[in-house]
Amino acid sequence: MLAAGLKPGPHVSLAHAIDKFKKEKLREIILYCVFLIIFIASSNLQRDVEHAHYYAQTVKAVVLLREFPTNPYAIRFENISSHKHFWDFMIEVVPPMLFQEKWYNGDAFQGVDAGQVLLANRLVQAPRLRQVRVGPKVCSVPPRLDAYMSTCYPKYRSGSKSSEEPIPGWPPGTMMEYRKPQQLNSHWLVDGLYPYEGGGFIVDFPLNSTQDDLREILGHFRDEKWTDIGTRAVFFDFALYNANLRFFLSVRLQWEFSPTGTVTPQHFFRVMRLGLFSPREYIALVLDVIVYAFILYYSMEDSGKMIRLRAAYFDDPWRFFHWIMYIFFLITFVFKVQFLLTSLSYVNTEADRDSEQAVLDFEYLGWVYSQIWNWTGFNTVCVWIRAFSFLKYINESTTQLAATILSSAGQIGRFFCVFLLVLWVYSVSFSIAFGTDLAENRNLLSSAVELMKVFALGSKHFDNITEINSLLGPILFLTFQ
After folding, report:
1. Is pLDDT at 9 greater than 80 in this prediction?
2. How far is residue 66's CA from residue 63's CA, in Å, rounded to a whole number?
3. Cα end-to-end distance, the chain, whole Å
4. CA distance linking residue 429 with residue 403, whole number of Å
5. Whose CA is closest to 65, among 54, 52, 79, 53?
6. Residue 454: which of 415, 436, 480, 421 has the closest Cα?
7. Which of the 8 DSSP states describes residue 33?
8. Residue 271: pLDDT over 60
9. At 385, is the secondary structure helix, strand, or coil?
10. Cα 239 to Cα 360: distance, rounded to the nearest angstrom
11. What is the tens place of the pLDDT at every residue in 310-329?
């Protein structure tokens, strides 16, 4: 009777419960098949994965694989490791890459031809260079070294950022003031060594700039030591639009200036479509609305059963999974609404200051877009796992399989908890013992990922571990396996 959503009682017959159960399950299976078809169609219509991949990889190759013209060595973006490399890239690579002035035959660009990248992609707003800094603090050093150092620049933290002292600006002779995230309409960044706020010291390069203009500005910054020991991160953001594929591409080139004096480059290329223009996009939106109508219906149905059955509702383990799926869909819905409202606001308003400054944080919008598809990936797994729950009504063998899996769920869960505990213990051990020497063990998360690779594929770093510590390394490695 509980399976039929009925609470046992003197006025509820077994025959009625069986008949109700059969009808409900048949209706559920048919409805869920319709839901699956609409969900798959909606997901595929909303994203053109193949062309998005091709577009991102094409631009990525142009940006990241271009060698520095005046460097005698084959230095590219990924090889940047010092202040000098950073400025060589900005002065030698960026101007001809973003502000092309001639056709391949030498003819100068005229009118609307200007502002094109790779002849088919247009800059949609002024590129922005932003620096995040920390302020000086009194060093805690041994007395023996007091005469050599008294001021330190710590790791980046929200409380240690520098916002009071201006830095050299443009034009020459002026100073650049710190600007808050609210003034820049920018957001926190968490994809790096440290989370960085959206504020900082910024300069926007107008779209009517020439290569010589950029070289002059960037050369001035280099001469004035715009980056120094207090610099913790520099971001260079620009956004492109390809009318042929109707793709926007947000590009963020990021350099983290560590307290050790090294520079670590990172890059983010995020392809997205903004607004609603083609019939395909309107169809995808309608299908998406239907998908969430299904989710609302299922959640209300489960809520009704929960109210009727109370604690007995959770006797069926599948119902826990149902609510996990609803939560995942709710998270995705929040991201989708945020992205849709922001994108519609952007594409349906007149361009105002786009040619003079960055008016939209494309990197953050691209991050929201990526979160939509990350969570949609979870949702895809969830909806198909839930489909598995209906297999037990097909024939006896599938019923037995489902019952076996459910009966062993508790034991599997306990084993998983023990495995996570062992993984945690060894992650701490490897991080403490080898973190300063091996990048794979530099923190707990990296150590855990590396140990999962060891568990699944074996280790490629066993020789490195034994080279660092010939006794502890083999002991930890062999006992984990």
Report:
1. no
2. 6
3. 48
4. 40
5. 79
6. 480
7. H
8. yes
9. helix
10. 10
11. 888 887 777 888 899 999 99
Lowest mean pLDDT among 6-20, 100-114, 240-254: 6-20
116-117 and 247-257 strand pairing: unpaired
Q: What is the pTM of this model?
A: 0.82
Residue 179, CA distances (Å) to 131, 174, 204, 206, 411 in order? 10, 15, 13, 19, 55
Closest to 339 (Cα-Cα) out of 291, 288, 299: 288
- pLDDT of amino acid 102: 83
- Sort 223 into a burial class: Cβ within 10 Å, 0-12 / 13-18 / 19+: exposed
Structure tokens at 287: 């299908």
The single-letter code of the amino acid at 464 is N
Q: Tell me the per-residue pLDDT of 424-439, one tens digit each, with 9 for 90 and over.
A: 888 888 888 888 777 7
Is the N-terminal amide bond of 279 cis, ω within 30° of 0?
Answer: no
3-class SS at 123? strand
Burial class (CB in 10 A: 0-12, 13-18, 19+), 257: buried
Residue carrying structure tokens 């599948």: 318
Contact 66, 76 (CB under 8 A): yes
Q: How far is it, in rounded angstroms, from Cα 440 to Cα 393?
A: 47
Distance between CA atoms of 69 and 135, rounded to whole angstroms? 35
Confidence check: pLDDT of 225 > 90: yes
Provide the 3-class DSSP secondary structure of residue 161: strand
At 410, is the secondary structure helix, strand, or coil? helix
| Amino acid at site 416 | F
Question: Look-up: residue for tokens 């489902």?
Answer: 402
